[in-house]
User: Fold this.
Amino acid sequence: MKQLTYDMIKGTSFGYWTLLGIFGVLIAAGLGSAYYMETNGHYVTGMNNQIVWGMPHVFAVFLIVAASGALNVASIGSVFGKTMYKPLARLSALLAIALLVGGLAILVLDLGRPDRLIISMTIYNFKSIFAWNMILYSGFIAVVGIYIWTMMQHNLKKYNRAAGMGAFIWRLTLTTGTGSIFGFLVARSAYDAAIMAPMFIIMSFSFGLAIFLIYLIATYHLTGRPLGDVIVNRLRKLLGIFVISVLYFVLVYHLTNLYLAEHSGIERFILLDGGIYTKVFWIDQIIIGSLIPLLIFYVPVFYKSRLMLSFGALLVVFGGLAQLYVIIIGGQAYPLQIFPGMEVSSSFGDGQTGNYTATPAEILLGIGGVGIALAAATFAIKILPFLPQSLANEVVDPHSTPTT
Amino acid sequence: MSISRRKFMQAGAAAVTGAAIAPGIHLVELAQARSPEEAASTAKRWGLLIDSEKCTAGCSFCVDACHTEHNITSNNRPETDAQWIRKVTAKDPDTGYTHYLPVMCQHCEKPPCVDVCPTGASFKRADGIVLVDKHICIGCRYCMMACPYKARSFIHEEITNQKSYVPRGKGTVESCTLCVHKIDRGDNNTACAEACTEFGNDAILFGDLSDLKTEIAKRRKTEPSRQLRSDLNLNTGVRYQGL
Amino acid sequence: MITRFLILFVLLFGFAATGVADADKSDDIRTPLPVIKITKPGKCVDDTDEMRRNHMDKILHQRDITMYDGIRTKQYSLSNCVDCHADEKTNSVLGKEGFCESCHTYTAVTIDCFSCHSDKREVKTSDNIKGKPEQ
Assistant:
């Protein structure tokens, strides 16, 4: 069996700095957008008094959900004892922290008063899921940080399993918390469902693994390190199962809602006549974001190509963003049912579908958060040994037979 | 009387500074305003009773009075402009009957906005008024997601020329304060109710729901009224008739 | 950080002996000093020294009792401060020579009050303008 060794990437090539430079530009664009939104006020965005959370929140929630999902690979290795995943644990934990930081940065920069961040960290209302999430998020970074430490320092190895278990439990709580942000909102028909929390957990598995797979293939390709088919095939099949699971939860969510007459309005809106939201749901989330990737993941002609496989994972990311767009923005666009059964109108948009068009500033802020996550991860693999030198088949699984 | 007396005693105990005030005066003038040094107490619960049968199409004196009182101006961007109170037209598609009614913060006893606020900036005062402490509001807008009545507005742009008694500023969330500044100075009425009585159709009645001698409490007891979204069991301080 | 301390140091000593500071001003015009115009002198709330050092605590305390208890006594109320200290010409406590802004700029301390509160003296009009409003 070949020895498994981790080391830092050299990170001196022109390509490496160009890549970091690109991420830097994304971050700068995001910060610039945030500054523009804060100085002018949020009226320059597409958000308004009906659609109070917009594109920045789609990106932020996506990254936060994906963060806890990215940790999954490590958890399978340390908590469930699947040795094949163990070499991936460090990268998995790193991506988890990086994605979370990116997502949180977006959330904070979108606040009406980001200068008061210190208040949100010192004054808590413990009845608020949001306040709990702030503790969960900062705790997540600490817990996963310790987990990474136990993986990297030899004399701490004995605590590795315990730290892995702690991180696993913490990430489940965190995603439940994120899902509950929406699940507890009784006021809005789209969110009034307890299934939101478990659905967010399964979404996190899917989004997190998709990002992990893309990042893994890209870094190993760019650094010229061997990455065997055994590990890639494992991850591919796993991602396929996660995508199917998300589809299943989406199905159950809509079926339960359809069963309740009270919620038939919102169901009709999302599934049939909600204009943009119906289109995003069927075309972007279901077809482009779920069915096409499944096709790629299960048809050999497609998945044999690493590029095609990465593309499939990228579509899962796209589908995830679409899904959150439908949940977050579609859910708000559907008018509040203050007078059920009545035709309602007012100067404040009662009874009307909310208008929302994401402005470039909002999208750039969201992409800036992605930039922060990618830059952080890409810089970290240069300064600490996160990546195994080789993930060739014989390293990952000594019993593997060479694939054709 | 014994009930009122007990409530007064509770109020007195809650307000330490209030102890300095001659109690005799309060016993006589229980329904009157509290002194400036006395804290708002649970002995009162302020609310509104709105008769949608009296409210008519085209009349907007309540809205205008509110927006004048609090200097809420429009930037001609209806989707982002603040509206603390709005006239809603609700038509029954079956019968064709149309209701007109103003909707504002319903001042719930169990307000969802207060539950979700991460910093506790959304809070309910002892006398039942739901307010935003803009000093600690971070502008996350979670309360707006949680409010079933769409009562809240986020301030989307710079505000100037605020009234000294209505601080308002960009980046925070706000809503109907039930004219808390008027209540505190003892006006015993809100701008919308005053305007509706004086110029409109006398459809809005303001008062203390917990004092059974007030007109609002009497009418709540003898006439039918209902809460909006009563299914949520929030026990709103604002109730409607004729719906 | 060191500059902050230096500024604070200069400020405290400068205030402790305003007369001296004023004399310095004529000596060395390169040192910018805050403009302190007090149009209505006299002790309103507390001694000048006390107010200079601790006005923020008093306002903060009043802020919370007003916000949560509805106690609107005048003595420590922000609008009462503004009513007295607003500049004669601009009617405001902000602006280059405004009572609040002048010092806060000098000490490099952000004032957050007036992003929501009115910085202007309340112009007293007859409280009740009766008559049916235009519709």
User: Anything to note?
Assistant: Residues 229-259 of chain A form the longest helix (31 residues). Chain A touches chain B through 49 residues (CB under 8 Å). Chain A has a mean pLDDT of 92.
